[in-house]
Automatic annotation (TrEMBL):
This is tRNA pseudouridine synthase B. Residues 238-293 form the tRNA pseudouridine synthase II TruB subfamily 2 C-terminal domain. Signal peptide: none annotated. GO terms for biological process: mRNA pseudouridine synthesis; tRNA pseudouridine synthesis. Its EC number is 5.4.99.25. The active site is at 39 (nucleophile). It comes from Actinacidiphila oryziradicis. The gene is truB. It is an enzyme of class 5 (isomerase). Responsible for synthesis of pseudouridine from uracil-55 in the psi GC loop of transfer RNAs.
């Protein structure tokens, strides 16, 4: 099995770990991981690394992500999404587009966000969602995140069929930094408007350079399992730096080489014959090797 990435279009109802298990079987190796989880109810882009490409995942996880989602105003749930019990209801029938836009503006840019309690964040070594299930009372600290774009694409009355009158569904698109919880955006928008809010649908459309146009369903992968070669994957995700044979040899031995102008953050290094060698970053005019692939 070659080293590389698999861009999966995750179906609803399956955990990210469940996708990894399927990939291990298809790839014939246990050395498989993912770059950032998706909740079971969510669908869309899940980046899977196979063999050496698993060493790219921690760096890919830090890149920008894009989502399409539906936010329901008028109900609060324990999980901030449709899978949790409703804890409060308030009619959103009188909410204006102007108020919605003002609320979204407060949640756009560099903000401090309190993650959803039903998340994998650890509190004193215990997952937050475990503490919720055990009925524990606790608070999570706010974290800095960046919401580059938060746009309403449509507003639709949800109707009485969903259990209460006065519900509004907002179809939105979000571009954000790693670590941003779309469920928390729904929760906080609803709180600001005085109606409560939660997420009813979530689809991740992009992780860094990898979008749905490159993603394949599990059914497609079952029929034909192929990986995006590790060099191609690195070139798509990071700035590229080509070095000569001598520089390649030094890097292969872990030697720092002069790298004037190389900035912070991962850069993909390629040697002769287009061979992917390493991820490096610049530090005081020299390379600092983040991961060696040579």
């Amino acid at each position: 099995m070659k080293d590389g990435l698999v861009i999966v279009d995750k179906p609803a109802g399956l955990t990210s770990h469940g996708v990894v298990s399927r990939m291990r079987r298809l790839a014939g190796t246990r050395r498989v991981g993912h770059a950032g989880t998706l909740d079971p109810m969510a669908t869309g882009v899940l980046v899977i690394g196979v063999e050496k490409a698993t060493r790219l995942l921690g760096h890919l996880a830090l890149t920008r992500k894009e989502y399409v989602a539906t936010i329901r105003l008028g109900q609060t749930t324990v999980t901030d999404d449709r899978e949790g019990d409703i804890t409060a209801s308030a009619s959103a029938a009188g909410v204006t587009r102007q108020a919605i836009d003002a609320g979204i503006a407060k949640l756009t840019g560099d903000i401090l966000q309190v993650p959803s309690k039903v998340s994998a964040i650890k509190v004193n070594g215990v997952r937050s969602y475990t503490r919720v299930r055990e009925g524990e009372e606790f608070e999570l600290a706010a974290r800095p995140v960046t919401v580059s774009s938060f746009t309403v694409q449509g507003i639709t009355p949800a109707g009485e069929a969903d259990g209460a009158a006065g519900l509004l569904d907002l179809d939105v698109t979000v571009e954000c930094s790693s670590g941003t919880y779309i469920r928390a955006l729904a929760r906080d928008l609803g709180a600001d408007l005085g109606t409560g809010g939660h997420l009813t649908a979530l689809r991740r459309t992009r992780v860094g350079p990898y979008g749905l146009e490159r993603a394949r369903t599990l059914e497609q992968l079952e029929e034909s399992f192929e990986v995006l070669p590790i060099g191609e994957a690195a070139a798509a995700a990071f700035p590229r730096w080509d070095v000569d044979a001598d520089q390649a040899r030094l890097l292969g031995h872990g030697v720092r080489i002069t790298a004037a102008g190389l900035g912070e953050g991962p850069t993909a290094v390629f040697g002769p014959e287009d061979r992917f060698l390493a991820l490096v970053e610049g530090k005081r005019g020299e390379t600092r090797i983040l991961a060696n692939f040579g």
